[in-house]
Design brief:
The structure is a single chain. The longest helix is centred in the first third of the chain and has 16 residues, at 16-31. Mean pLDDT is 84; it is low at 1-76. The protein has helices spanning 16-31, 37-40, 47-52, and strands at residues 86-89, 92-95, 106-107, 114-116, 119-121, 125-127, 130-132, 151-153, 156-163, 168-173, 177-182, 185-190, 197-201, 205-210, 214-219, 224-229, 236-239, 245-251, 255-260, 263-268, 275-279, 284-288, 292-296, 300-305, 312-316, 320-325, 329-334, 339-344, 351-354, 360-365, 369-374, 380-385, 392-396, 399-404, 409-413, 417-420. The N and C termini lie far apart (92 Å). The protein is mainly beta and 421 residues long. It is built from three helices and 36 strands. The strands form ten sheets. A five-stranded antiparallel β-sheet has the order 8-9-36-35-34, with no helix packed on it.
């Protein structure tokens, strides 16, 4: 082993003979790794000696990945390729030259603005004006060429009919107008929007219904049932002293029906003494057909004859938050279970139409679909076939109450707007 003179204040450079001797010993040690070190006269081989002959491994240089799989490439990438081969560089297509090198990228453009698999393409819908997302494109909202002057959401054109009605409570529509009640006012605007009209002071309005002549509402401030002509005029008190009203009201050709803390109630359209259809408490929501009035407690859906009688249980839930009826079934939403349910009017087991939803609330139906409000995030207005199926989101937001006609869905939003789609 080479000796270094530490007392001299530095290293002593080995002579050529010493270096040669060290090299021989090092080579011998590598050739006979199992031999006794005492036989060679040295227990170890100095790294300095090995380095003198270039026998110590150099530290590894930093590795450089020249492949294309693990890192993005750019247009200057000079990697070898097969002539005529293509690949994507963002939204551009690169073609391999005859020399086996990647050429400059050629950007994709309408009507094929995207690159996939080495070619320009359209992953959405090809419309006459180019590639379009029919769910969000205002020029092609739901179909090619179907323009939306407001906001295209989920393929539907969302329109704000009125903004900031303070403390919205309930909503109703007729053939010409949409009506709503807030804590302070009964209001209306056209189905296409316009300047809202204040029809009456609401006196802490709760619920709302409309027929071809009047708008009806319950006042929690005066504990009364009132009406006002749809064209405007003086309000009329139909029933001056009622129990505290709850959320739920409906009207037919002879009477107004509403839920109160004392039970399911009715009064003639001209006013008079209220009738108790069925006693009860914690009632909510109201729907009518030609024979029965329907309502719900928090956990049970019931009905009774329009003139009163013994209630019949139609279905049940955990936290019922919406009610509707057609010629064959009664429908309800269960906020806690996250379901939309139905039951046949003639009797039979309840059917789950939709499940796994995020707190479904108020509901409405037309001849083909059931619509419901989901105010919890992500929130929106959704629909599904009356027989059940996969739900479709038709608008985003935080809807409170909804109504539907033959062409549109209308809703009161918690943000304080009257919307339609």
């Amino acid at each position: 082993m080479l000796a270094l003179c530490t007392a001299c204040g530095g290293e002593v450079t080995p002579t050529a003979e010493q270096a040669d001797s060290a090299s021989v010993n090092a080579l011998d040690a590598m050739a006979h790794p199992d031999s006794d070190a005492s036989e060679s006269g040295d227990a170890t081989v100095s790294d300095a000696a090995l380095d003198a002959q270039g026998l110590v491994d150099a530290p590894p240089e930093s590795s450089q990945d020249t492949g294309l799989a693990d890192a993005p490439f750019d247009a200057s990438d000079g990697g070898a390729c097969a002539s005529g081969e293509t690949r994507c560089f963002g939204s551009a297509v690169q073609t391999c030259t005859a020399a086996g090198q990647w050429g400059a990228g050629v950007p994709c453009a309408q009507p094929m603005p995207e690159c996939a698999g080495g070619a320009c393409t359209c992953s959405q819908t090809t419309c006459p004006g180019g590639c379009a997302d029919l769910l969000t494109d205002n020029a092609n909202c739901g179909a090619c060429g179907l323009a939306c002057s407001t906001t295209c959401t989920a393929g539907e054109c969302v329109v704000t009919l009125a903004s900031a009605p303070m403390n919205p409570r309930a909503l109703a529509i007729d053939a010409n107008s949409v009506y709503w009640v807030t804590g302070a006012y009964v209001m209306k605007t056209g189905l296409g929007g316009g300047t809202p009209t204040t029809l009456a002071g609401a006196g802490d309005g709760f619920s709302l219904a409309v027929d071809s002549v009047s708008v009806y509402w319950t006042s929690g401030g005066t504990n009364s049932v009132l009406s006002v002509p749809i064209a405007g005029g003086a309000p009329v008190t139909l029933c001056p002293s009622i129990a505290q009203p709850e959320y739920g009201m409906a009207v037919n050709g002879s009477s107004v029906y509403w839920v109160a803390q004392s039970g399911m109630m009715s009064v003639p359209l001209a006013g008079g003494t209220p009738a108790t259809i069925a006693p009860g408490s914690a009632l909510q929501f109201t729907a009518l057909d030609a024979t029965y009035v329907y309502w719900a407690t928090q956990s049970v859906v019931l009905r009774a004859p329009l003139g009163g009688g013994t209630p019949t249980t139609m279905g049940s839930g955990f936290v019922i938050r919406g009610l509707a009826v057609n010629g064959g079934n009664v429908f309800w939403s269960d906020l806690s279970a996250g379901t939309i349910m139905s039951a046949p009017l003639g009797g039979g087991s309840a059917v789950t139409l939709v499940s796994g939803r995020q707190s479904p609330g108020n509901i409405a139906i037309d001849s083909a679909n059931i619509y419901w409000a989901e105010a919890m995030s992500p929130g929106g207005v959704l629909r599904a076939p009356l027989a059940g199926g996969v739900p479709t989101t038709i608008a985003l937001g935080a809807p409170l109450r909804i109504a539907v006609d033959g062409t549109s869905v209308y809703w009161l939003d918690y943000s304080g707007s009257v919307m339609k789609v």
